[in-house]
Amino acid sequence: MIRECNRSLRISQEIQKEITIILQRKINDPRLNMMITVSSVEVSRDLSYAKVFVTFFKEKQNLHTIENGLKALKSSCGYIRSLLSKNMKLRIIPLLNFFYDSSIKNGEYICNLIDKTKLT
């Protein structure tokens, strides 16, 4: 049981690294003309599904930017998966689902609240 957990953890870390490289070098979608960070990857126990959590960095980031970025990633999901299959030696390449990771935005909000309480 512990070995299985370690294996899925190692595979999720490797998928995270490979997807980061793919997004930086291989994807040329104009909707993704911003910096994209893969913050984490969660792989199912049978390694058939993966949740990929991403963060977008753009000067003017709003809900529209996030929605367009996620749509672009979901439309290029098959291409990313095929590149993963070439770079990774796995029998089953998981189906990818992209989600927006709002933890950085939440962290900024909390830091702003702390700064406001320090000033008063």
TrEMBL record:
A molecular-function term among this protein's GO annotations: ribosomal small subunit binding
GO cellular component annotations of the record: cytosol
Cell compartments where the protein resides: Cytoplasm
First-listed, main subcellular location of the protein, grouped into a coarse class: cytoplasm
InterPro entries linked to this entry: KH_dom-like_a/b, RbfA, RbfA_dom_sf
GO biological processes: maturation of SSU-rRNA
Family: Belongs to the RbfA family.
Subunit structure: Monomer. Binds 30S ribosomal subunits, but not 50S ribosomal subunits or 70S ribosomes.
Name the record gives this protein: Ribosome-binding factor A
Biological source species: Candidatus Pantoea edessiphila
Source lineage: Bacteria, Pseudomonadati, Pseudomonadota, Gammaproteobacteria, Enterobacterales
